[in-house]
Amino acid sequence: MWVVRHLKRRQTPHAAQPKSEYLKISTVEEGMFQVKNPVEPGLVVEYVKRVHSPDVHAISLTGGEPLFQLEFLASIMKALKGEGYKTYLETNGSMPERMDKIAFLTDYCCCDIKDETAGAAENWRRLVELELKTISILIDNGVSVFAKVVVTSETKPENVEWYASKLSRMDCPLCIQPVTPIRNYRPPSQRQLFSFTEAAAKHLGSDNVAISVQVHKFLGIP
Questions:
Q1: Are 148 and 177 within 8 A, CB to CB?
Q2: CA–CA separation, 142 and 145 (whole Å)
Q3: d(Cα 117, Cα 9) in Å, to the nearest integer?
Q4: How many domains, in total, are found in the chain?
């Protein structure tokens, strides 16, 4: 868990079975320190209060995948809502049955649409359908939600158009994010990126398509 004007729960790829002995917390005033796991939701709220300021839009709950820790996540969200905070959940969208249990605690949500190039599942189209079901659940609960797809130099415009056609039926905006260069993944060229936005706008319109970047990378936030 890192606290830098907003608080995030950091998770490893093994987030379903966390084994970290300590929770890392970082604030501008106190720097980096550790707290022994497990922690109580009240501690999370305490640090949110410490760093809260008038310009904080919502409390971001991200990872890793927050829904792997459903019970703890729900406890935090209930506590935050009880204190009057807005919640902003980032999820990979692959577990609609879990989302169904906490959608009512969510104010804002960014839900992934995994591109074929992500290699996230053998049955890629089935995964996308699960993500779309998650988005549908969020919309039914009145959540302000948008989809995000990370694109690479190998992403196909026709796939982006397919995502957009599905999302248009739910009136859900789409953010297109160039991949951060890592391992064998390369970001798309400018021309490719614009071909993706054009493909998406055919179904969603220009008002519901945007390009996003990982701002924390530029700001140097872990």
A1: yes
A2: 9
A3: 27
A4: 1
Cβ–Cβ under 8 Å, residues 64 and 10: yes
Judge whether 155 lies within some domain: yes
Residue 102, in any domain of the structure = yes
**Which residue from 47, 50, 60 is spatially nearest to 86, judged by alpha carbons?**
60
**Residue 186 belongs to a domain with what CATH number?**
3.20.20.70
pLDDT digits (tens, 9 = 90+) for 40-95: 999 989 999 988 999 999 999 998 899 999 999 999 999 999 999 999 999 999 99
What is the H or E stretch that residue 23 is in? strand 22-27
Beta-strand runs (E) in 55-178: 59-61, 87-91, 108-112, 144-151, 174-178
Amino acid letter, residue 149: V
Cβ neighbour number for residue 115 with a 10 Å cutoff? 23
**By percentage, how much of the chain surpasses pLDDT 90?**
72
Domain that holds residue 149: 92-219
